[in-house]
Amino acid sequence: MVKSQFRFRADEPVGDPAITVDNFGEQTNAAAVRIEPGDDARDLLPFLDRLKLVEINFPAFTDGRGYSAARILREAGYTGELRAVGDVLVDQLFAMRRCGFDSFAPDAALDPADAEAALTRWGDVYQATADGRHAIWAKRHG
Amino acid sequence: MYKYDQYDQTMVDTRVAEFRDQTRRRIEGHLTEDQFKPLRLMNGLYLQLHAYMLRVAIPYGTLNSAQMRVLGDIADRYDRGYGHFTTRQNIQYNWIKLEEAPDILADLAKVEMHAIQTSGNCIRNISSDQYAGAAADEVVDPRPYAELLRQWSSFHPEFVTLPRKFKFAVIASDTDRAAMRLHDIGIQIVKNAAGELGAAFYVGGGMGRTPMIAPLIRDFVPVDQLITYSEACLRVYNRYGRRDNKYKARIKILVHEIGKEEYSRQVEEEFAHLLTQGIEPPAAELARIVPFFADPPFEQGAPDSIDRSDPDFALWLDRNCHAHKQPGYAIVTISLKPVGGIPGDASADQIRLMADLGRDYSFDELRVTHAQNIVLPHVRKADLYGLWQNLEAAGLGTANLDQIGDIIACPGLDYCSLANARSIPVAQKISERFAAPEKLAAIGELKLKISGCINACGHHHAGHIGILGVDKKGVENYQLSLGGCEGADTSLGKITGPGFDEDGIVDAVERATDVYLTNKQDGERFLDTYRRIGMEPFKEAIYG
After folding, report:
1. Is residue B279 within 8 Å of residue B227, measured between CB atoms?
2. B480 contacts: CB under 8 Å, gap ≥ 6
3. Euclidean distance between CA atoms B218 and B148, whole angstroms
4. Helices marked H in B188-259 — which ranges?
5. What's the pLDDT score for residue A1?
6. Cα(B186)–Cα(B219) distance, rounded to whole angstroms?
7. Across chain A, what does the average pLDDT equal?
8. Binary contact (A95, B157; C-beta < 8 A)
9. Is B192 exposed, middle or buried (0-12, 13-18, 19+ CB in 10 A)?
10. d(CA B160, CA B338)
11. A71 contacts chain B (CB < 8 A)
């Protein structure tokens, strides 16, 4: 199983290996699944209550489909672990966090100080997502 | 003009710090060039043939004189004394050092400017009508909506790595001066029968190697759902836009391949879902932005008459001034297309002079046009002669707006690493060939656009006469097309036939204008004659 370098959750990590979306529907007891860029995250929506871990794979950091997949899951109320795996780089961490990722397992370990800086640099944001932050427009008209 | 509050200012300041850190990590070797490239691109920094090029955002093409002056100072301090205004209403500098880029961004941030998302596979700087707020024909000023979209699209976390770049244009007139339907999303703010404002969405237009005119996807999105609908459009694209082939990755290909009905259906589904997510800024936010774009304090009863006794001034007046909504005022376009010049280029001194003229003659406001000229939007008619004298003295008085010398051209192979052929020398030769005032007057309105490669940054598809530079077995070759047009009657140009060398293309353009002059009927422009008589007479004259 993939181990996270950064994890922003208090619960215990799930031990189960993540299986493919195709296999997931048939395995009625599986609690961990991995989404590839071409998968439709909405195929998982009927099963959210039994899911504890969703890994979203970024085979190349330039392929941004995983950001939409993450938001779709969070918008549908998924509260389990959402882990970015693959070609995950320092300068993508903050946008990923905003899309709902709360765990990161990069192929190549990241510099912890750089990662910390990237995650804490932005005090405010222009958009509302499901990450609970108040957008700048909300603060202006609070 | 929009003014930053503490939030906006902190965002650009934070971006400067972030980019400084990214640049440091690149220089120290923590980031590979492949990893750094998308980061610098999202900040408008390209590696070109000879140096880095920095593209600075001018949101919806509007800026004040202090900002314009800083653009001139940057040209002096960090470049070779020039700036190049682009077809996206931005400015770019061609001789930048990587290690100085963060300092330039810091200078820009001091006057509420930045280079955020001026390149890369993300939502780019939003363009608009250069006559916004001054034109008599708009239903409302489009810029508050563009500003709302600017904030929403800045650092949007879901759309940082789209399949390809993404360009918005926002207009609010039936006369389209922004080539709106040649954008990934073109928005026209309209009023419905009940007098409510909404947005017509045209999605999937663009130039490049597969030019397409954007179809109407939805005729009325209520303005209080503008952001949510935009987000739905982008999410469908981010999920389903092609990523297997860079040349098929723009949204126009997705919309074309699945059809506008299917694309629109998917957007509606996503839109219905996103409406439940609370992502739309409240009406109070738009209400906060709108007053920034209120009319300046126009002088009531300003004189409407103009002394036309100086014939050179009268010519410039007829060519470069446009009707203003306010009696006694005019919209002035400063041509950056002198005979033999580089289209869109201005020296640091010229930039600073235009800043001063904007301050003294136009309520501190200037605009950049997609045709690479500068607009002073609010000039008293009584001041036009004095303004023109200032412009003439600085080499900025060229009277050729929308004429054959008012050429749009990309930087081409002189600067750009993507180009196949040079654009600038062709533009210079054409403007010299047609320099005689009688010739210009006879030909009248003729929009000529030159791109140095298939990416079409010079908008050649939309030129009444378009020129595309290609590489033919290692030799620069130029294809000619006729009949392109942007605006309400948008059309794409058709190629005449085999291409030409550099001198041959100038001759071919002249033969095409001769056909027009022989065949034109009363009041017809080049484009009208072409549309009436078709390609054949032109082909015969050019190749016969």
Report:
1. yes
2. B465, B466, B467, B495, B496, B497, B499, B500, B505, B508, B509, B512, B542
3. 19
4. 226-240, 251-258
5. 61
6. 12
7. 94
8. yes
9. exposed
10. 39
11. yes
Structure ipTM: 0.97
Distance from CA of A97 to the nearest CA of B (A): 9
What pLDDT does A29 receive?
84
A114 contacts B25? CB cut-off 8 A: yes
CB-based contact (8 Å) between B279 and chain A?
yes
The pLDDT averaged over each successive group of 10 residues in chain B (544 residues) is 97 96 92 89 87 95 98 97 94 94 97 96 96 95 98 98 97 95 97 97 94 96 98 98 95 97 98 98 98 97 96 97 97 97 96 98 98 97 98 96 95 90 96 92 96 93 96 94 90 96 96 97 96 97 94
Tokens (6 digits) for B381 = 């008619």
Residue written as tokens 């006794």?
A: B309
Instruction: Name the A residues in 99-118 with CB < 8 Å from any B CB.
Output: 99, 111, 114, 117
Q: List pLDDT tens digits, range A91-125.
A: 999 999 999 999 999 999 999 999 999 999 999 99
CA B272 to chain A, closest CA, distance in angstroms equals 13
Q: Does A89 touch chain B if contact means CB atoms closer than 8 Å?
A: yes
Both tokens of residue B358? Answer: 């904007």
Please tell me the predicted confidence (pLDDT) of residue B443: 96
Residues of A in contact with B18 (CB under 8 A): 121
Tokens standing for residue B72 = 């001139």
Sort strands B465-472 and B448-451 into parallel, antiparallel or unpaired.
Answer: parallel
In angstroms, the Cα distances linking B47 to B22, B162, B328 are: 16, 21, 47
- Tell me the H-state helices in B346-495: 348-361, 384-393, 424-433, 437-443
B274/A75 Cα distance (integer angstroms): 9
Residue corresponding to tokens 């009905």: B261
d(C-alpha B451, C-alpha B208), whole Å = 10
Give phi and psi for A8, each to the nearest 5. -115, 55
Cα B353 from Cα B356, distance rounded (Å): 5
Residues with Cβ < 8 Å from B31, sequence gap 6 or more? B22, B25, B39
Structural contact between residues B460 and B430, judged by C-beta atoms closer than 8 angstroms:
no
Global confidence as pTM: 0.95
Asked whether B57 and B115 are in contact (CB, 8 A), the reply is: yes
